[in-house]
Write a structure and sequence with these properties.
heterodimer, A: four-stranded mixed β-sheet, 4 strands, 66% helix, B: mainly alpha, 12 helices
Chain lengths: 267, 267
Amino acid sequence: MSLILSNLAVDEFIHPLDKDAMNIVNKVPGFENLTKFIVENSVEIVYNIQLKGSTIRLTENNAPRVYRLYKEAAEALGVSQLPELYLTRGYKFLNRIIGYSEPMILLHTNCIENLDDEQLKFILGRCLSGIILKHNKLEFLCDIIDMLKVIPGVDVVASALALPLNQWHRKSELSRDRGGLLACQNFEAAMQVMMLMSGVPYGDEKNIDIYDYIDQAVKFRETKGLEKAGRVAMTAFADKSWMIDRASELFLWHDMGKYDEIIMNHE
Amino acid sequence: MRKLDPSTYEHPLDKMALGALKKVPMLDKIGAWVINFMQKTDYMVDRRGNDIEVNEKLAPRVYRLKKLAEERLCMERDIPMYITMEWDYNAFACGVDNPIIVLNSSIVEDFTDDELLSIIGHEMGHIKSNHMLYHWMSNNVAQWMFNCGLIGGTTLMGIVVALKEWQRKSELTADRAGYIACNNLDAVLSAELKLMGKTNPALAPNDCNFSIEEILSQLDDYEKVKMDSLYTKFIYAYITCNMTHPWSVERMKEIMDWDKSVAYDEL
């Protein structure tokens, strides 16, 4: 059982850049109500039908272990209302939050088939912290921009708008990773999931030294010349963080004692 | 069963729509000619070149199940079967005069004998009721639509929607044939669950128990979302109209209802 972090405040673990972006969005008058209205009347209904129609809803009787871990992760983060959890066949590490007023979480079977308890709790905690952080507010905007990108004429404007949003999206993943760690409260397990996501074969992740893995992040940041230009350009257009960056950011956050601080404050 | 007439188990809506389609003059002749031509020049080359043929030596288990399904469904002739290397759970039947069945290797690996029988029986059901000609049209008219531009496209859109509507009903007929072939309702439902996202028992032995009651309660919620208002009904129709198969929960409900019906007992 993990420690219950009651009254966990978002400010305790949110990434500074993620926080700045959310502050800007919150200042735009009517933004929240407008996005809520659009999401509730479009994608939320579509996903609701799709998930209920052709994926499996996990409950206390369907895959009990997963649901128990889900409840534990929610308890640790102080989430009282559990979003519905759905399972679909897939070999990736899909863990997506969908919807606004009634969020849902969709998992790939891979997460259940290949992760142990602590590792799975990290993934589930990651999803739940996305809900605490209200990331669905801006993720929806990313979806809309993606749709606009294919329309000729609008695509240039959309691509320009996508740059700051992409930057937010990359940083938002870092906040969620921290949330995942706070839910599973096992640093090794969190880093093991990162390794698996980077491509370490299942089962090998427990034998790899975390420092050897993080070493790759150092090398990645030290690149020079043309390779560095490529990295900077590709990063600007990417809507996802580099896996190795995510791992090293979580490693640094833990290394700086921020994680221990939160745990100590709530003990 | 000595002689099995498909009309005794065909889904009424499938029978009705197919009857209407068959009345369109020349449609079947042209379609059959094109499919026969395509089968010789394309499908069969691909099958013989890339896949393995199901026979006593190359796939003894599948061959045994194939013979069993042929016997139980009283197939008039031998249906050649192939296994193709794919990760997705899928299988299909194609061809009009000389139909064949193709199974993905993942299904052969992960499904139990009875579950596999229900899949093979499902595909044989399509062959027995002569669905392939119109399946082929339904899958390809959309492509022609794009090629025809706006005016031709709008005209053909009505045909596509009608064809897809029938295609989804034809799957219900095939599900019944699958049930007849394996004669085990639990296996039919479990195969359907696997398509929805049931975890693989070999990889997750503790998390592969899913309860049918929970799925039924999910079905209730699905109906509620779908029928909530005129608007949600419209969204449902919009996302469903291009689907080749009905929503999984609907398929499960249909086969359970049929199991309880008088028609099945008579059979």
